[in-house]
């Protein structure tokens, strides 16, 4: 039986939620599992998705979140569920990056293709349908050697038809508002054909329906051999997005994809090559100039052209989307934006107009003109806008001046506009974007917000401007670092091969310093900020090895050929631990050495006196507990475990948890746990108890535990168990890296 690759293009239902759902319903869990099996090749599992949370489900959730550039959580959060419930294409998205093809060389083996329109939609005139189909095919012909000829009878390479529900290809449509169309990859028979759902409303240009030209152009991409792209600006992105059909230009990602199959257009006029294909902006392009920056309910939004990046508080990497995928009524691109803490709205500015949204919904009466804010008619556009939390005023930057708008009184303040340099000392360039972050006001003057290529001015109230090279969505300014006794440059020069520079690290922040800071932070698995933050300084102050860390990845050697110059080595065990018998220690040491002997020419011989190549000894050190106030050891510590009332036979604590409600500390030891009363400083009676008596479903050894937002999290093996300690109820089983926001599951 011959199988075919099917693609379905679906409408975009704009529904966005900014808060996570605490617990997915059973129906959502089943829906999500079905979704991941269909589109991300999830293997057969048993039990609900969220409550199980084992690695196959988490991996596929992460894969799906990465594809749609959502926040990567590995859980069924609100944004993920909203995306899953949007109408979409029927072709799986797995293993797609930028443009993609169907694989197996599914392409036409000829450049001259025929097409036939079998019937028409009553939504449009015959001439409008003919024109839309022709222009949709020409989108691909303009950038390839492909040429399309229409025939009016017989079987064409691409058969085009409109139908509803079951329409003869075993892939029935689903009524209005969901599946718009589907198409088949190049192949004999039905291959290349494109079917459009007659239950939808198709239009010639209007946004009151789905523009047939845009839908058809996407479908014909599949008819020619392209699969989906994860580039939100690409025509081959899985969901529908409105654009002006009269000004449409095939994006660069789609051009690269189709030309990878068929090559470029040999008939292209070198004198008049046509419009340049639009590209999706790269966040780390050193030449990038942002159009606007704004806050929205805890998130930070960075705008460029028709795109924006969303930066979440818990996520290092921002997520990119089209502006109109979230705000369909917004302009294609914007000049400025800000969130008003007074009205709980976000405002977009484009030329002489302003749009107001409550989250993602356009407020009634908008767009309005700039004069609605009290700006003079001579102001044709806003360069940047900033809402000041302290004064509750909004500043509008126009050229070398700025205005102050009182959000409460909804009037412009008297005495404005003022020159920028009157308030922002040292600021002479044009402001392109502005926002507030943790009490600071960065004004973006040039380039972008990528760590190595960003020029930004930080306005500190009452002080001069400090020039910084920072990642603005993780902006941290620690003034005391400038007075630190630890010389950050000296550290980086010694251990990370920093070349000679002048001036203090933080104030200059040029790319060589930032690069080495990032390298050091990655090595020690710190938060990567590119700045001398507190954790980085603390790490630099720690006693350490004098060998440089640079250029270390996976295993590493000491360099300079530091190795034994012989293969026969001796070892001697000087003393023994009381925890094991002598024979057990002897066997353990011997087997440990044989680990290396099995894969090398090295051979190890034990001696019982004298000096061996490898001397092995055990030092006496009681099983203890250390107490710190912040980073400072508490006087009198370390103490023995018995100081907590634990039995002498308890040699090791596997995990400890302080319960906020009961003010008791739980100590996990093997398959049991103890309860310690912090107020009375005594162990509670009736303990130890078995772990599974309180924590139902937990059978393995506990390795770590903590509380977060009224939930108790217990780590065991590769999983983390989410409990309500008061009700003793298990809510979810998650991957143990859930809170680490890993991007490489």
Number of strands: 42
Q: Work out the helix count.
A: 15
The average pLDDT score comes to: 78
Name the CATH architecture of the largest domain: 4 Propeller
Major sheet: arrangement of strands: 1-5-6-4-2-3
Describe what you observe in this structure:
- The chain has 745 residues and is an alpha+beta fold.
- The chain has 6 domains: 21-76, no CATH class; 112-262, Collagenase (Catalytic Domain), CATH 3.40.390.10; 292-474, Hemopexin (4 Propeller), CATH 2.110.10.10; 479-541, Muramoyl-pentapeptide Carboxypeptidase, domain 1 (Orthogonal Bundle), CATH 1.10.101; 568-616, no CATH class; 653-740, Hemopexin-like domain (Hemopexin), CATH 2.110.10.10.
- The chain contains 15 helices and 42 strands.
- The strands form 11 sheets. Strands 1-5-6-4-2-3 form a 6-stranded mixed β-sheet, covered by helices on one side. Strands 13, 14, 15, 16 and 17 form a 5-stranded antiparallel β-sheet that branches.
- Helix 5 (126-141) links the parallel strand 2 (112-117) and strand 3 (147-150).
- Helix 5 (126-141) packs across helix 6 (212-223).
- The longest helix has 16 residues, at 126-141.
- The chain is globular and about 95 Å long.
- One of its GO terms (biological process) is proteolysis.
- The modification Phosphotyrosine is found at residue 366.
Characteristic terms for this protein:
745 residues; Hemopexin; 6 domains; five-stranded antiparallel sheet; 42 strands; globular
Summed up:
The chain has 745 residues and is of the alpha+beta class.
């Amino acid at each position: 039986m011959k199988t075919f690759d099917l693609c379905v293009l679906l409408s975009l239902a704009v529904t966005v939620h900014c808060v996570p759902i605490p617990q997915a319903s059973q129906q959502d869990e089943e829906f999500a599992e079905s979704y991941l099996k269909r589109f991300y090749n999830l293997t057969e599992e048993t039990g609900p998705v969220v409550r199980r949370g084992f690695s196959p489900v988490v991996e596929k959730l992460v894969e799906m979140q990465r594809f749609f550039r959502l926040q990567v959580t590995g859980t069924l959060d609100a944004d993920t569920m909203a995306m899953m419930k949007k109408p979409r294409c029927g072709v799986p998205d797995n293993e797609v990056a930028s443009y993609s093809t169907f694989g197996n060389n599914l392409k036409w083996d000829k450049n001259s293709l025929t097409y036939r329109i079998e019937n028409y939609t009553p939504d449009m005139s015959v001439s409008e349908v003919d024109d839309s189909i022709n222009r949709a095919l020409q989108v691909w012909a303009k950038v390839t050697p492909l040429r399309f000829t229409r025939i009016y009878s017989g079987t064409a390479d691409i058969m085009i038809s409109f139908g509803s529900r079951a329409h003869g290809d075993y892939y029935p449509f689903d009524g209005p508002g969901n599946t718009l169309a589907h198409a088949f990859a190049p192949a004999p028979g039905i291959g290349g054909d494109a079917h459009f759902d007659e239950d939808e409303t198709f239009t010639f240009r209007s946004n009151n329906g789905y523009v047939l030209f845009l839908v058809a152009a996407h479908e014909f991409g599949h008819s020619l051999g392209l699969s989906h792209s994860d580039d939100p600006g690409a025509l081959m992105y899985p969901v529908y997005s409105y654009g002006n059909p009269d000004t449409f230009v095939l994006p660069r990602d789609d051009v690269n994809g189709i030309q990878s199959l068929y090559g470029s257009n040999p008939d292209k006029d070198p004198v008049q090559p046509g419009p340049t294909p639009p590209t999706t902006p790269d966040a780390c392009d050193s030449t990038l100039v942002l159009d606007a920056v704004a806050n929205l309910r805890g998130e930070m939004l960075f705008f460029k052209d028709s795109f924006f990046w969303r930066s979440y508080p818990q996520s290092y990497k921002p997520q990119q989307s089209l502006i109109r995928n979230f705000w369909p009524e917004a302009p294609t691109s914007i000049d400025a934006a800000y969130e008003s803490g007074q009205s709980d709205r976000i405002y977009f500015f484009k030329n002489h107009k302003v749009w107001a949204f409550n989250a993602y919904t356009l407020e009634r009466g908008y767009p309005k003109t700039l004069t609605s804010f009290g700006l003079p008619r001579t102001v044709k556009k806003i360069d940047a806008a900033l809402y000041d939390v302290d004064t509750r005023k909004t500043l509008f930057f126009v050229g070398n001046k700025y205005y102050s708008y009182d959000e409460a009184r909804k009037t412009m303040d008297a005495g404005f506009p003022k020159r920028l340099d009157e308030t922002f000392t040292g600021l002479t360039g044009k402001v392109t974007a502005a926002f507030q972050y943790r009490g600071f006001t960065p004004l973006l003057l040039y380039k972008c917000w990528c760590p190595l290529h960003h020029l930004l001015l930080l306005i500190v109230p009452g002080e001069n401007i400090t020039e910084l090279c920072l990642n603005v969505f993780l902006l941290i300014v620690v003034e005391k670092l400038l007075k630190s006794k630890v010389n950050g440059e000296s550290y980086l020069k010694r251990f990370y091969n920093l070349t000679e520079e002048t001036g203090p690290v933080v104030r200059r922040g040029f790319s060589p310093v930032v690069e080495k800071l990032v390298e050091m932070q990655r090595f020690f698995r710190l938060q990567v900020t590119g700045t001398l933050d507190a954790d980085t300084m603390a790490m630099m102050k720690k006693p350490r090895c004098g060998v440089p860390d640079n250029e270390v990845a996976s295993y590493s050697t000491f360099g300079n050929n530091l190795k034994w110059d012989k293969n026969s080595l001796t070892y001697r065990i000087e003393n023994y631990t009381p925890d094991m018998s002598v024979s057990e220690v002897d066997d353990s040491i011997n087997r440990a050495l044989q680990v290396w002997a099995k894969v090398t020419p090295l051979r190890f011989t034990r001696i019982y006196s004298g000096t061996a190549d490898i001397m092995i000894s055990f030092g006496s050190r009681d099983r203890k507990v250390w107490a710190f106030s912040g980073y400072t050891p508490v006087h009198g510590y370390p103490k023995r475990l018995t100081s907590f009332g634990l039995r002498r036979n308890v040699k090791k604590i596997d995990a400890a948890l302080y319960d906020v409600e009961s003010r008791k500390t739980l100590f996990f030891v093997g398959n049991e746990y103890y309860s310690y009363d912090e107020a009375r400083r005594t162990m509670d009676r009736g303990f130890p108890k078995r772990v599974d008596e309180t924590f139902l479903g937990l059978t393995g050894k506990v390795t770590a535990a903590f509380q977060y937002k009224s939930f108790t999290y217990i780590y065991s093996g590769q999983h983390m168990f989410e409990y309500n300690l008061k009700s003793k109820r298990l809510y979810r089983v998650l991957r143990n890296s859930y809170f680490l926001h890993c991007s490489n599951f």
